[in-house]
Design brief:
The chain is an all-alpha fold. It contains eleven helices and no strands.
Length: 239
Amino acid sequence: MDPLLLVGTVAAYPMESLAIPDLERALPEGEHLPEEESHPDEEPLPEALCAMMMTSFFMRLLCFLALWRPDLQEHWKSLQSDKAFKSEKTMMCSILGIIATLAGTHIGLSGGFKATSSTDYFNYTLPASYSALFATFMFAFIAILISSLSAISWLHADRHYAREQLEQGGYCVVFYLLSIVAPMFFVALSLICFICATLIAGFCSQSTVGRVVATLLLVICAIIAMLIGLVWKSALDIA
């Protein structure tokens, strides 16, 4: 085709006819393009919470154990949107579920050993060992109870309610963090009592195998305690 003829043909049409049609007009009647989601500025952490974290070592330690963070800044950011709070809530419920599972395991082990008579290697009928197993059962039961109640509370909580609890400060913040820390504390006590019961039953038995197993368990516990001490020292430095 002759280039001059092509240019003349294009020039003969008005520019409006060559323009891209409006997307709003191309949509069916009653439908509109989705508006861009607005992202409001994030609200800073209230000054009362900042002061509480700066002045109280106990609060910083609770925050680290519950949220694995030295302060509430990141957790407060998660309360600014529903999507971020949903992820935070899912993580909390998962932690509480793991704690409840561990506590249930402790209940099963303590109940099984209490129902078992003295074996050739371990003697669980001793008063000290039996009392430690009973304490294992009780602490594990308390851990399951608290973790279940906390999980139900987190499942039905929304970010507005969580913000209201934190904004009140004081004991509300303490109970807010204890809903995660308390089950950890009781399940740790349950594990310690179970280890003590096993060590007592092993060292007080007449079997060499039982004493050797108890010694190995004691060495493993010492190594784990050293590792926990290092983590605890790091937590104190961060807090």
